[in-house]
Task: structure prediction
Amino acid sequence: MIQSLKEFSKVKIFGIDSEVLNRVCATVEKTELGKHTYRECFYRMFEEIQKRYMEEGKSPRTLADIESCNRLYVLADDLPYETIADDYIEDITPAMVKKFKKNIEKFNYLIETNAKKPKEGLSHSRLNSVFSWIDKVFNYAYDNGLIEHKSFLDDINLTKYGGVKNNKHVKRNFLSLTEFQIFNETFDRLASSYFHHGIEKIEKRLYGTEFDFEAVCKFRSLLYKSFYNMAFYTGLRKNELRGLKWKDLIQNTNGFHSIKVEKQFNDKCNRLIGKVSHVRDPKSYNAFRVVCLHKDCYEVLDRLRKFLLAYRKYNDEEFIFMDFFVKNPKPIPETNLDRCFKRVIKESKIIENSVGFNGSNRNVTIHGFRHAACTFYMECGMEKEMVAKILGHSDTHLIDTCYREFVQVSDLESEKLETCMQFFK
Result:
């Protein structure tokens, strides 16, 4: 535990250098005996959370969210509104916190999260995050005896203030089976030209003149197509897919193939826990699971495996979605996956040719493949309890509240995955 802000100022944290922290320490040294500023409480809370995350190997994305929410809207020096950062937390009243939160909303006007072009301002979800982490600092102060009355925490709660919440019920922000087939056809048509772009200039510089240009383009086409098909047919999260290894692939006696989900790969925000990348446990206990692979999904994955065998790159202990032909080989970066996905969606004109559900625009993402898998299996006749198990949910609540209205069950298709259903029983 860091005992003082002087000691804390020796480390550089979330983009704030030691010079800024020294100014903070100088301010704190002048505070009244026994009192603590909001800024001081935040630093100490953050240090404790960071230490715990480093010890437990948790995802640092939450750390990044904490620091950005406070750095940008509470601790910055050039805010257009009066901040509570240097007020004594013992003297802050609920009215002061409410006024402060309303000023955050006022000077960072809300935007629609489904806007086609990014705009300045805050989305409803981002506003909720900012308010939530402000509340957690006061929770930390209460737990450490700096705030006497617990009712204070209820009085400052404005996390639902402002904006209109986007509801999963409203939009079908994922692809149907027919749309995914169009997606695959468009990907096949674009893959060659898409992966040719930039490879010759970058990879030849890394690997020399003997570099097999065509082989790398073919490899990446297979790699990305396998990833998108696995995402659609299994409903695995992006980092769960990136954490899969070839040894996790299981050949079952009934002729079906399945995959074990035991780890997920993470390489975002790892500076906050002192790592370049790391492999950690899935999101929850229920996320440890075995998922049966649809035959179309396995066929694409098998083509990737055979390619790796032919080029002597196959290894049971290696990640399935490892991109070997980069300076630092690692599972496909999320930014590359998103960029390719958006390009294919745009060229396929799936969004343009679809009718907006309930009069709202669709915002299809890779994570939407998870929702697509849910509706796909339900439309094939699988019971919702089995679908929840595939997705790694603890119960069927999300299926009942978010996806049921999109499902169109056909009696003719109810026996398509009967063998698959038996596997999960």
User: Anything to note?
Assistant: The radius of gyration is 25 Å. The first helix runs from residue 5 to 8.
